[in-house]
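Kindly inspect this one:
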Amino acid sequence: MLLINTDERCRAQHEAVRNTAGWYYFTHHLIEVTGTDACRLLDRVYVSNIAKLAPTRGRYTMMLTEDGIPQDDCVIFCLEENRYWISNLHPPRTLRELEEHSEGLDVSFRKITKEVDMYAVQGPNACAMVESLADKNPSAQKRFQIVDNRIGDLEVKIAKGGYTGEAGYEIYIKPSECEKLETILAEAAPKFDAVKVDEFDVMAYTLATEAGLYLVTDIDEADPFVSGLEWMIDWSKEDFLGKAAVSKAKEEPRTKELIGFTIDKPFVKAHGGPYGAQIAKNGEVLGHCTKFTYGFTVGKWIGFALVKAGKVKTGDQILVDYEDAVVTERPFYKKTN
């Protein structure tokens, strides 16, 4: 796949989020879990301690397979007692595991994606933009906290967070009212130098990859220690899906590691994914590229690779298929203020 870094439309939208603000429609799948045993079910399936979530609070967590491999990462919101939202990208997996582990529990769960849409507003001016529109100022909210609010005459839920490496909010709204919200955001945008982002690569890849963010599904067959997500695990929990396997993996030496790399040239032929570009050093094949895009802020091609542990260090020269690359620390971009 030939990738060219001259898409000025993508560049302009990317730079708006980095320098001022950008807003966009980007709804994850939502599953609602209710019932007196809702928390017990979520604690059986996810690695974090969901019981500690107070109403309105959210937590970034993950779900393992029985073999201890992450099969989905998500944000779980506690909307109120006995009512939770799971914001995820793989509802079939989630629904399967919820069903498998719900035996004997007073709990119900259903996919509500078609009932709720979400808009993200991200960037240095994003918080001021949303706070100027909201009926109740959300500035005191904690990260991943979700609170009922109003924007104009629209009833919304506003959560603090995002997937860009910038400050911002996510606004949850009824699909029937999206057009009204878009009008409000568009009218407010000039005051905050905000632009509408409609390039999928910007929403899903360029901003997140620069900030060192990835989905667990970006990393094929990597346990939490390889992906660096072991911090999510609450080891004090008596049990959760995959605990036996991940406890065993905790004591074993790492055979793989996740690295970052950059390629500094205008035209590149490479790709990421489960069958991504081959990573090699001194003729030895070390692994494969898992995610790859152009970093407009960095000014280089950037990517992640899953490779044999201990074979490379920051600054080493490697080959990504036939392209010369340099092993680089992640994240590639980090806010300084």
